[in-house]
Automatic annotation (TrEMBL):
Cofactor note: Binds 1 FAD per dimer.
Keyword flag Flavoprotein: yes
GO MF terms, alphabetically ordered: electron transfer activity; flavin adenine dinucleotide binding
Annotated source species: Iocasia fonsfrigidae
GO annotation terms (biological process): fatty acid beta-oxidation using acyl-CoA dehydrogenase
Gene3D superfamilies: HUPs, TPP-binding domain
Xref: InterPro entries: DHS-like_NAD/FAD-binding_dom (IPR029035), ETF_a/b_N (IPR014730), ETF_a/FixB (IPR001308), ETF_alpha_N (IPR033947), ETF_asu_C (IPR014731), ETF_asu_C_CS (IPR018206), Rossmann-like_a/b/a_fold (IPR014729)
Protein's name in the database: Electron transfer flavoprotein subunit alpha
Family classification: Belongs to the ETF alpha-subunit/FixB family.
Annotated positions binding FAD: 253, 278-279, 292-296, 309-316, 330
Alphabetically ordered keywords of this record: Electron transport, FAD, Flavoprotein, Transport
Amino acid sequence: MSNNVKKSKEDVSLYKGVWVLAEQRDSQLLSVSQELVSEGRKLADDLAVELTAVLLGFDLKEIGKELVAYGADRIIMVENQELKHYRTGPYARVVADLIKQYKPEIVLIGATHNGRDLAPRLSARLQTGLTADCTKLEIDPQKKILLQTRPAFGGNLMATIICPEHRPQMATVRPGVMVKEEPDYKRQGNIIEVSADLSKKDIMSVNKKEAQIIKMDSQLSREDLFTKITDIVKAASKAVNLEEAEIIVAGGRGVGSADGFEVIKELATTLGGEIGASRAVVDEGWIDKEHQVGQTGKTVHPKLYLACGISGAIQHRAGMQDSDIIIAINTDSAASIFEVCDYGIVGDLHEIVPLLNKAFQKVEV
Ligand code: FAD
């Protein structure tokens, strides 16, 4: 429980349905939302209930259709200029009110920067549990509750967490963890439009044209709009898109220094891939955190993962072991990365990686 005042046991039978809080940036659906809708579909089928995707923002019509294609039965759409960009106050208020009104039994949220900000606030407002960074979600076949599995104790064991007495059961999942299904653009779903006039006081009204809409009783006051977005500055550097990369060349402490990363970067460029890293080198300051793969970094599924000078600690493996092909280069033949690789090369990466680079430069793609 996230609140000091203990909430008494509630009638959980009043809650029905699986929800995914879908996320958009500049009216583009995030990949993690496609993954969560695909996963939510399986949970909803196991429970024989509807899957609803909740979408806040502006100019959302096309995203609504996309969410249906990925498996949602129903979209609750709240369109408003004030919701165009994520802000804690209005988003938390609108979503908490929707949950109180519609009472879903499960709510899934992407563990993005915004999702990590929103999810704990919702769990505190709703006085229910939240399991962060789940790697597996299942329905208990007997009790019909959500089994939320995540690494615990530094990744040395997997804990399955349940929330039996309170609702909704809330979980966050990091991008890249769940598998995205193929979208089916012929699927049909319901789109429910809820309008929120956030510029005036009290202000949650409902588009009455839609037959299914239930009038919201939540009221948004100016308190919910206490922050103002004056500007959005995007990082000037090229965004690292490890989750969607097909080829990743990753370096660990074996590269020896920040300059030692050059050979990794050169090979990644030749192969048209992204650069990955272990936490050790991020902690050393040799490369940015956005390159980190693993339990506290990103989860990746490339076609090819080249692990260079990485020992293969369980926390690193948690983020890359589902890659299609893993090649490991390490001077220590007993390194545990060799337990998960398809091809292993025992040797000095500073000799082997430049040789590979030269060889691949000659290959015409
Ligand atoms: P090391 O363990 O120091 O290994 C370096 C390897 O390089 C060795 O195997 C060595 O034989 C080899 N080597 C040395 N020189 C050369 C050379 N010239 N050529 C080839 N090989 C060479 N780690 C992550 O990576 N990602 C995470 O998300 C993550 N999360 C964590 C979360 C928690 C709660 C904790 C406790 C730890 C986490 N860690 C994570 C850290 C993890 O436990 C390891 O410490 C880390 O992965 C080690 O990084 P490394 O393999 O680069 O370094």
